[in-house]
C-alpha cells in the first residue's frame, strides 16, 4: 500500500470532508480513499441494477432460453374463521 500526503488543503474542504465522512460513518482517511478510488474509476461504483448487471455478465455468452413451467389453477385462500 502506498501513502500520500496532501498539503495546503483548504480548511473548508477539510471541514466538508470531515462532515461527509461522519455522514457515511467512516474515518476521513477512508472517505478520501473511496473518493479517490471512484475518481480514477470514472465515478463508477458498480452497477446498482441487478438485472442490468446480470445481462452484462451473461450477454457475451449468448444468453439462455428457459422453459417456463405451465401455470396451474390458483389454490383456495386460507380460511381464518
Provide structural commentary.
- By secondary structure, the protein is an all-alpha fold.
- It has helices at residues 11-23, 28-40, 50-58.
- Helix 1 (11-23) crosses helix 2 (28-40).
- The radius of gyration is 25 Å and the shape is elongated.
- The model has no long low-confidence stretch (mean pLDDT 87).
In short:
The chain is 43% helix and 0% strand. The protein has 81 residues and is an all-alpha fold.
Biggest beta sheet attributes: none
**Gap from first CA to last CA:** 66 Å
- The structure class reads mainly alpha
Morphology call: elongated
Q: Averaged pLDDT, please?
A: 87
Helix content: 40-55%
How many helices does DSSP assign? 3
Gyration radius, rounded: 25 Å
Q: What proportion of the residues form beta strands (DSSP E)?
A: under 5%
